[in-house]
Amino acid sequence: MTDLGSAAFPANGSPHRLDGGTEEEVIGEPAALQCQACSAKVCEWDQKDVDKHIASHTENPCACFFRGCDRTFQCPLTFRVHVLKKHGLAPDQLAPELREMLEESRDCRRNLKAIGLRHFLDHIAFHEETFCECPIEECEQHLESVPEIGEHSTDRHEPAALNEQKHHDHIDDSVCGTTVPRLENHVNEEKAGTDQNVGDVNDAKDAAKVESAEKELSLGASTVDETTSGTTVGFTPGTWQCQHCNATVKARGKRDLMQHAMKHEDIMQSSPCFIEGCPKICHWGYSLRAHLMMKHRISAGGLTSEQRQKLIESERAFFEKMEPRMEKYFPPQALISKTAWLCQQCHKEVKVWHVQSLLSHIGSHEYFSCACPIEGCNRTYKNPTGLRNHLKSQHKLIPGDMNGELRNQLLGVERNFYDSAKDHLGKYFPAEARLEQPVETVTST
Questions:
Q1: What CA–CA distances, in Å, run from 86 to 82, 90, 220, 399?
Q2: Using one digit for the tens of pLDDT, what is the confidence trace for 300-328?
Q3: What are 33's strand-pairing partners?
Q4: CA 135: distance to chain centroid?
Q5: If we measure between CA atoms, which residue out of 198, 224, 237, 194 comes closest to residue 336?
Q6: 150: helix, coil or strand?
Q7: Per 3-state DSSP, what percentage of the chain is helix, strand, and coil (rounded to 5)?
Q8: Helices 384-394 and 404-422 meet at what angle, rounded to 10?
Q9: C-alpha to C-alpha distance for 311 and 300, rounded to whole angstroms
Q10: CA 102, CA 100: separation in Å to the nearest integer?
Q11: Could you tell me which residues are beta bridge partners of residue 233?
Q12: pTM to 2 decimals?
């Protein structure tokens, strides 16, 4: 491959002098060298200009033509962004000779690492001179791509327009000029406050009823005692394990557990959004509250008394449907966040990091046999943990190394054991057997 640097300006002193004379004969204006690769003129007295021009052939072919700017670029995309941002000129605003120089940089062979079609379109736009202009007449801002028009319009123009159209006496000075969602939320809260203050004493009583109903349904960190199937279920914040899918749920309140249990239940209810003009219909109670916040930027405190009453009734209906089914998915023994349980048979303290810890202990009292699935092996164990240890030590097998048939046999043995042991949870580990103090983590030495 030819070295463009040496080809453009040979080291033997034979670069073409534009004036045709020697350096001693040239008085006044600096002598110029002519590049033999592109016939460009470069001042030979300025080594920086020479290096910059050589780099335009060997490294980045697009060199900025503004005086005092040393930037070079690999592709017209970044070159034109530089001209637009740094020098504030779009292609149609350049002088004819500079525009012609910009045209010469169109031969682009850049490899694009494009995530989507938009990246290709943005790149092509710089070759086709399709610069995006702000649609506001008073604004002469040029944008690089279509997505930036939306960001520019929202940040620069929309807040001012909203302040001008929606400004009223109740808006705080700290709110004006900030983000659009904050302003809209503030306007809605002010309207809600006005609606509540204009009513009579009966409206105040209705608001008090709504507040008490909301407190009744608030399932936060406080303990909520409900009686289900003759068992007292006390809620405690922490990590719970679903008895249906073995997924762990970090719950601050019963609401978090209900949201998970809903995935396993075919419970659908119609909760239409009560905001005028919104066709959204939510299929369970708590999703309506999330829809109001995400779509309309309205919290429960920004609703009118009538709207809040509808929201509370929707959530109460969902709560009443899900509460009787919670024992199936999250019994008291499903709390596994660093807790310990006291066995009522042998009074042994069982540390629980997984609900299967309790079930495995039950196997030491009940006669559930876990037989080895390997043909010719007659060993049986009290729980699946012992069986897996046997397979690993004696047969050098772990579930990941087994073939499909053998693995299915092992999983079938474990499933039968856990299903049988769950029927005895209330006998060995009732709700009151949970120790209040968390188990300290013990590091083996």
A1: 5, 11, 54, 62
A2: 767 778 888 888 887 777 777 777 778 78
A3: 17, 42
A4: 32
A5: 237
A6: helix
A7: 50, 10, 40
A8: 150
A9: 8
A10: 5
A11: 226
A12: 0.30
